[in-house]
Amino acid sequence: MLLSRHAAHGAHTAESLNDTPPPSIATPRDADAEATPATPAAPRGWSRMLQRLAGVFAPRHAARKGLLRLDEETAFAGCPRGIDGCPEHRETLVLRGRRLQVVSWGDPRRQPYVLIPPLDATGRDAMAAWVRSLTAQGYAVVAFAREGRTVATQTSTLLETTGDLLEVGRRCGEAAAVMGHSLGAMSVVLALHQGLRAKRAILVSAQADPRAALQRFVDRSGMGPRVGARMLALLESRIGQGLDALQAHRIAPAIGIPVLVVHDLLDDEVPWDEGERFARHLSASRLLTTLDLGHHGVLNDPAVLRDCLRFLKGEAIGDRVVSSPNLPYGLA
């Protein structure tokens, strides 16, 4: 197992990682560090029982309600704003019936820029340090989020964000890098697969398997396998394709730009092996594994931020993951 551990408060090696280094070692975060937000608690026993009963007697209704809950859970919180010391420019793009709020720091038409898709509330708040560091290094930063969402435009958060990435990228030109967290990281990979132009990419706590993500939601909600199967069918009908076609090992091999995959070994929302799967199937990627930072804590860690900045400068960060292309996914 490949492991590059990070301390939470700056105990970070200054040595550059070359192509064949031993994994770097550091200590877990301090006990008094800010706690990573916990995964939403599972429903209490009686609520889970009611949901299972609904799945038995009204599975179609339960599946529709489940998709609404999934939409709420995967909704993004919008763009960072009001970052001290970083003047921002805001504009609204109207794109085929949807409106995007686009925020930029610096001038993406004159500077190399980093494109960031929407984040949840915790990720959005963590972006202030990233924007300050990136602009201090001479990059512009472009972030965006939808102004509203209606039933008529709902497909899935993943595919909506992918389409929005392509539109913003088309208007701003080739990005120096594109960076995403969790579901946003998966949308980055899909957008790159569909033609988004970027020289590098950073995937943080990335979801690699939409079908597995749906199953985790079903298990956490206690809705049972019948409702889960109906939710899968409804979602695939909504997006017009099977979720299996969006799995990392099917789309990642076509992406050839350098990619840094950052994932915490103890991530309790998206398992570490999904980040490892991206690193295994992206042809020019490296995997930086942290320890005891959690799903969102990776974004807040100063050492991770420094390593990502080094990656943008062309340094080899993390470990190369090697597997045989002659074996089907799941064997090696």
Description:
The protein is α/β, with parallel strands linked by helices. It has a domain at 79-209 and 247-312: Rossmann fold. It is built from 11 helices and 8 strands. The longest helix is centred in the first third of the chain and has 16 residues, at 59-74.
Features:
alpha/beta; single chain; disordered N terminus; 11 helices; Rossmann fold; 332 residues; eight-stranded mixed sheet
Provide a concise account of the structure shown:
It is built from eleven helices and eight strands. It has 332 residues and is of the alpha/beta class. It has an eight-stranded mixed beta sheet with strand order 1-2-4-3-5-6-7-8, with helices on both faces.
CATH superfamily of the domain at 79-209 and 247-312: Alpha/Beta hydrolase fold, catalytic domain
Order of helices and strands: HHEEEHEHEHEHHHEHEHH
The best one-word shape is globular
Separation, N- and C-terminal Cα atoms: 13 Å
CATH topology of the domain at 79-209 and 247-312: Rossmann fold
Instruction: Note the main sheet.
Output: 8 strands, mixed
Secondary-structure topology with pairs:
Elements lengths: L44 H13 L1 H16 L14 E7 L2 E8 L7 E4 L4 H16 L3 E7 L10 H16 L4 E5 L1 H11 L7 E4 L5 H12 L2 H16 L8 H4 L7 E6 L7 H10 L3 E6 L3 H7 L1 H11 L20
